[in-house]
Amino acid sequence: MVNTPPTNGDNSPESGEPLKKPVKRTKKSAQLLEIKSKKPDDDASPAIPVTQLTEPSPPEATPEKPPEVLAQVNTKEAPPEANTPETASKETVKEEKKQEIEIPPGTIFQAVGVIRGNVTFTTEDEKTIATITIGTKEYPLFYAPKKQRAYDALKKEIEATGDRTQRVVVYPRFTHFPGRDQQPNVGFQLVGFDKGRQSGEDVASKELQDLEFKLCGLWQFIPVCRTPCISIFRNFTKERLEHVKQSEPAKKVKFMKASHLPLFWRDAPVPPFRFNPKATKEEQGKPVFVQIKARFQPSRNAFEFDSLLGVPLEKPPKFLKVSKDDKATAMAEKKAADIAAGRTSRPPQGKPPFKPKGDFKPRASSAPLDMPKPKPKPKQ
Asked: 85: helix, coil or strand?
């Protein structure tokens, strides 16, 4: 007996024995069973193969099933998520949202440190000026209106104890000029001072040693400095945003002015961002937000990398930045005010003028040149 292939998903027996269980038979299965049960006689012609009599459907044809069953099979065989452009775009949006959420809480722009030096108060034109001397360098010591209480307390502490060597908590203040070769003006803004009785609020005084600073900002080059800088911007708050909206352009620029701190950082994990005017917006890239500990070097008037405080972030926390329109308006107003007052606000640019050495006197342009005389020819 020749074995017949299964049809309609039913299993065919290996022999011609009837099935033990009742099976719902179709017309094809009934015809098949009749052919199987029929045995050829000895006098009859040779048996024809069963496969030719049953005429099974070609293997490409799909089995006939009810619509409900087909729907169930299709839902089971379909993958959970098809890899289509729509799903790929949704995954990209999810990754971007995830990146926004991944900014650690408490991550802000910050530049605060501790310095120790000789503090001196002097009065000029009924105005008190403070300076701090670190080694052989003297730096101005400013204070914000909100920190005037700490400024007055430091002054009273020195008058009471007579000790001018103080350990103070400060914000660094660097003022750059258009000339790339011109050194910036360096100063410090007073935040508080360490009396040796550290309270719970003096976090920086506890965590940092002398000349150590915590710097958190954008790692990039700026046009007016050859050394890459960490740029510190104003952190975003709703109150500050409302204050900026109600302010004049000049006050906006002053309030949101960033501080660019030169930093020497060898083997940095990410290169400092450098603006390329020839590159497209997609190729330009963006500066990375870094969080480090650095030491202030008075001999260089710059900072030197010490250690990482956090993983560099491609997306910085929210901050306030001056718009180009407000900047241009503020510069135009300042220039008009300087012209009206008869002063120039632009510092000298370029190389310094040539200074002759010794008793050198420039030759008058009208004087004739002394041409060298030819040597006389020898007489023959």
From this structure: helix
| CA–CA distance, 206 with 164 (Å, rounded to integer) | 21
For residue 111, what are its two tokens?
């530049």
- Backbone dihedral angles phi then psi of residue 154, each to the nearest 5 degrees: -65, -40
Tell me the per-residue pLDDT of 57-83, one tens digit each, with 9 for 90 and over.
Answer: 454 544 454 444 434 444 444 444 445
Answer left, alpha or beta for residue 207, where phi above 0 means left and psi between -120 and 50 means alpha. alpha
* DSSP H helical ranges for the chain: 27-37, 50-54, 67-77, 85-101, 148-161, 203-207, 238-245, 249-255, 281-284, 324-341
Is residue 174 within 8 Å of 189, Cβ to Cβ?
A: no
53 Cβ neighbours under 8 A, 6+ residues apart: 35
Cβ atoms of 116 and 193 within 8 Å: the answer is: no
CB under 8 Å to 181, separation ≥6 — which residues?
Answer: 226
CA angle 39, 44, 50 (to 5 degrees): 45
Residue 370 burial (CB count, 10 A): 6
Say what the pTM is: 0.63
Distances (CA, A) of 272 to 111, 168, 294, 326: 18, 30, 16, 27
In three-state secondary structure terms, 110 is strand
Positive or negative CA dihedral for 152, 153, 155, 156? Answer: positive
pLDDT (tens digit, 9 = 90+) per residue, 193-203? 887 655 545 57
**Where do the structural domains in the chain lie, given as residue ranges?**
1-76, 110-235+267-314
Residue 217, pLDDT > 50, answer yes
**C-alpha angle 134-136-142 in degrees, rounded to nearest 5:** 45
